[in-house]
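Bumping with the actual sequence this time:
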Amino acid sequence: MAKDRGELSALEEAVMQSLREGQIVADDINREFERALTLGERTADKVAEFGGSWRFIFIFFGVMAVWITINSIYLLRNAFDPYPYILLNLTLSLLAAVQAPVIMMSQNRQEARDRMRAENDYKINLKAELEVRAISEKLDQLIHHQWEHLLEIQQIQVEMIDDLVGKRRGGTGDPA
């Protein structure tokens, strides 16, 4: 590989080392990634997972419908958030202000996980390619050796046929 591309990167060097030592390069990226997460990151992932679900949307619309209904019916007497529901708007703005950065943090971690997975895939593919090349070279070498051996056998067979033909020609006049 070094002769094909020149200098090797650290990643490629690690793959070459694992190839020489017969080690496995495939890693469980998810397990490694999960071990490194902090409590805040785990919480952000759970919030983003819930915030991006149909369950959240149904609960969200349900709470809004209840809020508006209670305030509209209770509005006839003394509503705690009369129309145009300024407190509801404030609550929704706060929800959006908190939820957006949490979801972005979760997406950034997902991107980092995807990068780690892509790097791991690259290492596996590179090692597989190198092993396929090595197998191909060995097959070429075996085929070349086999051809040489077959040529030797063919040469011996030709000599044997020549000997048989020569004996028949010399012995054709003798009665048998």
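The tokens above came from a reply further down the thread. The two ends are 69 Å apart (CA to CA).
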